[in-house]
Amino acid sequence: MNINENTVLPGFIAWLICSCNLGFNFGTIRPGGINKALKDNVGLTDDNGNSEGVLQVTDYRTADDASQPDSAAGNLGYTVTAQLGEFIGKADPDLTSGSKFTTAAGTTATPAFVMTLNQVTGNTTVTGPVDKDSTQATLEAGGPEAKVLGFNADEGSYGQTTINYKAANAASLKAPANVTAGSYDAAVTWTLNAAASSNE
Description:
Elements: E1 2-5, E2 12-13, E3 16-19, E4 36-37, E5 54-59, E6 62-63, H1 70-73, E7 78-84, E8 88-89, E9 114-117, E10 122-126, E11 137-140, E12 146-151, E13 159-164, E14 171-174, E15 184-185, E16 188-193
Antiparallel strand pairs: 1-3, 2-6, 3-5, 4-14, 5-13, 7-12, 7-16, 8-15, 9-11, 9-14, 10-13
């Protein structure tokens, strides 16, 4: 999913774009077993994102105030979060079996798939004083979103930051013990927030 934030905010020329349409493929997983490392980035469906595993944020926002120094004008900060949706069996896309394998609020507690996005070394071009790494995130199917990338204000967000989830150790997935054999697919929702990240 590509998310764009081009809204003009008071005092700023906004140009903040997240290209985060990427897929994760973990191959064959033993139910209830250990976390399975990432196989590649080729998804099961045609809309499952790029096969390069690249998450990229371009931040060219500048303050519309000549009195502000350039360092403060171009480093406004932002946050990227990810949320893992419910896993649906490809042989049962309409959920006629009633098994969503999610522990979303308000549903019967069913053991969920859990995907871990590990910390990955990032690369920031243009004015970033240091390369920004991603934040490790544990995502439970149907659960809440978690931060995967964030810049505090004046931390060097201006420019283009790239996170590559391509290596085998970049992500892992654990399947619930009671899942039946088959192919499963889930959506990952990426959200770009123009607000600066916190130190949490």
